[in-house]
Amino acid sequence: MQISNGVKIELIMFNMSSFSEWQKGIANRNYHLFSNFRKSDKIKRIVSVDFLPFTFRRCLRNYWENILFRIKGEKIYQDLTTRCVKLQNESPAESYIFSSLDSFFSQEKFFNKLNYLLEKIGDGEKKIRIVWSCFPMFVSYFDKIKADLYIFDAVDNWLLHKSFVGWKKKLEENYKVIAERADLIFTVAEELKNFFKSLGREKDVYPIENGVDFHHFNEPFKNYCDRKFEKIKKPIIGYIGTIEERIDADLLSYLASENPEKSFVLIGPLWPNFRSELKKFRKFRNVHLLGRRPYQVSPYYLQNFEVAIIPHKMNEFMKHTSSLKLLEYFSAGKPVVSIPASGAEKLGHLVYLANNFSEFKKGINQALLEDSQELKEKRKEYALSNSWEKRVKEMIKIIKEKIL
Fold first, then answer.
1. pTM for the model
2. What is the pLDDT of residues 326-345, one digit of tens each?
3. CATH class of the domain at 3-211+387-403
4. Other C-beta atoms within 10 Å of 129: how many?
5. If you average pLDDT over residues 189-211, what whole number do you get?
6. Do domains 3-211+387-403 and 214-384 have the same CATH topology?
7. For the chain, which residues make up each domain, given as ranges?
8. Is 214-384 a CATH 3.40.50.2000 domain?
9. Which of 11, 42, 67, 187 is the most core-located residue (most Cβ within 10 A)?
10. How far apart are the C-alpha atoms of 142 and 75, rounded to whole Å?
11. Looking at residue 243, what DSSP letter applies?
12. 3-class DSSP state for residue 337?
C-alpha cells in the first residue's frame, strides 16, 4: 500500500492525556500532534484514545471528566464505561474521541469495544491503518489491533519519572516490547535514541524534538486582562509550566532572596507531591503563583515577562526531554535563562545557560541588560523554523518512506 497512490491514513492514537484535559488548556506534544494531524490532507480519519486508566483513582477521574461531563459531538457509541464521539468536521480528517475505563478492569473487553468501533466507522475504502502510541503503560495493541504500521513516540523516559516508580517493572517489560515490535520509533531527544539502542533497537529510530505553535505566542494578545497579574511589580521573571518535582525549589528560593527588586511569577498547575517543596520559595513576597491558566491565554502572560526562565533540576530525567516552553518563550521574543538540558544546551548563542545558582542569577541580570530588538528577532526566527507543522511534515515523510 502506498500513500502516494491516493490511499489515505487511518490513525489510532493512544494518548498520554485526555481530550477533556486539552480543552482545559493542557497543550503537550500529544495535543499538538493530534491538532496538526487533523489538518493533514494525508489523514482520512483519527481515532483519539484518551489516557487509559491503570489506577482506580484515574478511573474515577476519567469517569467524571470523560464519561459524565461529555465532550460535545455526535455520539457514536455509549455505555456505562465507554463513550465515543465524532467531533464537528472542522478539519480535513474525521476525528473521533474514544474514552473508556475498561482497560483498568479488562484489556480484552477494552479492545473488543475499540475494534467494534473501528469496524462501525469504517466506510469500505482502502486505508493505511497506523497505530500511534506515546503511552508506554499499555502495549497490547500490537496483538489486539490489526495495523499496517505501529509507531511509538517517546516523549520522555517514564522509568526515570518519580510518579511511575511503582510501575518500573511493567515499564521495563513494555519498553522491551516496544523496542522489538514497533515499526517506527520517534524520540524527543538523542538520549532516548540511546535508551532504545540499549534495548537492542537501532533501526528506524528518529529523534524529532518538540515544535511550537509560533503564531499563537508571537501575535499580540488583545482583549484579555488579569488584574492580579497587572498589579505585579516589574521586572517580571516568569515561568509557565507544571509546578512539580522537576522544579528546583532551592534555586527559586535563592533567586527570590537574592533579587528582592524583581518579581518571580510562576504560572501552572501545582502537583500535590510538590507541596512540601513549595514552602521553600512561596514565603517570599516577590514570588507570585498564579495557578493554572489555559493555553489559549498563555501568550498574554508570556508577552508581559521581561525574562523567561527554566529553573529545572539538572538530572538524568531532564536529559531525556525536549523543552516545549523554550520555543514558546522564543516565539514571543523573550530572553531565556535555563539549565543546560532539554535542548537548551545546544543553543548557547540564544539562551543564557546556567550550571549553578550564581550563574542563573547572573544570567537574569545579563538578559535584562542586553536584550534588544535584534536578539528578539533572532529568537523568533529560530522558533519559526521549528514549528509543529514542520515536525509533522518530517514525521509523515518518514512514514511514507517506511511504507513505500
1. 0.93
2. 999 999 999 999 999 999 99
3. alpha beta
4. 19
5. 96
6. yes
7. 3-211+387-403, 214-384
8. yes
9. 11
10. 27
11. B
12. strand
